[in-house]
Write a structure and sequence with these properties.
Alpha-Beta Plaits; alpha+beta; single chain; 2 domains; about 375 residues; about 15% strand; elongated
Length: about 375
């Protein structure tokens, strides 16, 4: 069932990207054709003897946008499946711009080829006087290619920065949602590799870092399915976050842990072959009211301030002591009681830095 849900969410995510690309390229090509034919804002510098009807510009722009948008999205998703994004940011931006510019160029060439023979069949051009090469390298196609190059570079920078910062944080930074402190109810999971020190000594720093890369890459499908946000990566630890209502929906915050653990088990043959071990993670979850604010000038980030995070981290640190892999606070248990998960009471524990004991539960 989790696999089906993950595929559905990935399909919806791909559909959203397809829609975005269709709208972006249709708008871009319509604008470029408008500049070419109507001298918008005196940008164009070529006078045409014939004025093209407005509907033809919109029709041609949308047709090109649909063709390029569909092929662009397919190639984009294919690049991701090939782990193309396991490169430096500058390399990703440059190569992505180059690859997708070539895709746009080939698509424009194919559309131009079709238009050439349509115009020839309608008698709009004389094939004996105007060959396809002249048609292909016309000023209009050059304008479109320039627009495609600029559009590709802009999209490459946009998508790369969005992936670097995080989809939700990127949107919030753009609109300035947290320029002033805001209080929210959120849940946090501190997800940490078990026996990390021993594994680091066994593998060495380079192979250990590769192991962490692989683990967090395998976490991606879980993030999408459980609708989790990555607050930060700290060494071999990932801190995940949800708005409380989203964490409680379908028990997302609990399901995320068990789904990730299942993914690692399904990939155990790979991990055994590559590293001689199968990684296991432990986690602690807490929820409550936090203050969210955007900080920094040279480097901006969205941060959370609250004892809620400290408590989640302290609870996660109890996993080894009690021989458990997932511990939650009583606040989480009360919010998610009635789900299919079983909560076993560990005890009221006085955590370091706290003045009052906290109820701690294991989850199965």
């Amino acid at each position: 069932m989790d696999t089906v849900k993950t595929r559905v969410r990935l399909a919806l995510f791909s559909a959203w990207r397809l829609l975005f690309n269709l709208l972006f390229w249709s708008a871009l090509f319509t604008f470029v054709l408008g500049v070419r034919y109507y001298d918008i804002g005196n940008i164009a510098f070529i006078d045409l003897p014939v004025q093209i009807p407005v509907y033809r510009i919109f029709l041609n722009g949308i047709t090109l946008g649909l063709c390029v948008g569909i092929i662009y999205t397919v190639v984009e998703l294919r690049l991701e499946s090939l782990r193309f994004y396991d490169n430096s940011l500058s390399r990703i931006i440059l190569l992505r711009t180059l690859y997708l510019f070539i895709v746009c160029g080939l698509t424009l060439a194919a559309v131009s080829y079709a238009n050439y023979y349509v115009d020839a069949a309608k008698g709009n051009i004389d094939p004996d006087k105007v060959g396809y090469s002249r048609y292909l390298f016309s000023a209009t196609v050059q304008f479109l290619m320039l627009g495609a190059l600029i559009g590709n570079f802009a999209l490459s920078v946009f998508h790369t920065l969005r992936a670097k910062i995080g989809y939700v944080d990127f949107a919030n930074l753009l609109v300035g949602r947290y320029r002033r402190p805001v209080e929210e109810e959120r849940a946090f999971m501190f997800l940490d590799l078990k026996s990390s020190t021993a594994i680091a000594e066994q593998l060495g720093h380079r192979r250990y870092s590769s192991l962490i890369q692989d683990c967090f890459r395998d976490l991606t499908a879980t993030l999408l399915d459980a609708r989790a946000e990555v607050y930060q990566y700290v060494g071999d630890e990932a801190v995940l976050s949800w708005p409380v209502d989203l964490a409680a929906a379908n028990a997302n915050c609990l399901r995320a842990y068990f789904q990730f653990a299942g993914t690692l088990q399904r990939r155990k043959a790979y991990y055994q072959a590559a590293y001689g071990l199968v990684p296991e993670f432990k986690a602690g979850i807490n929820l409550g009211r936090v203050t969210v604010v955007e900080v920094g000038v040279l480097k901006r980030a969205i941060v959370y301030h609250s004892d809620v995070l400290n408590t989640a981290a302290r609870v996660q640190a109890l996993c080894n002591e009690h021989g458990k892999t997932l511990l939650v606070t009583d606040a989480v248990k009360d919010k998610l009681e009635g789900t299919s998960y079983r909560f076993d009471f560990i005890g009221d524990i006085l955590l370091r830095g706290k003045t009052q004991p906290v109820g701690v539960y294991s989850v199965e």
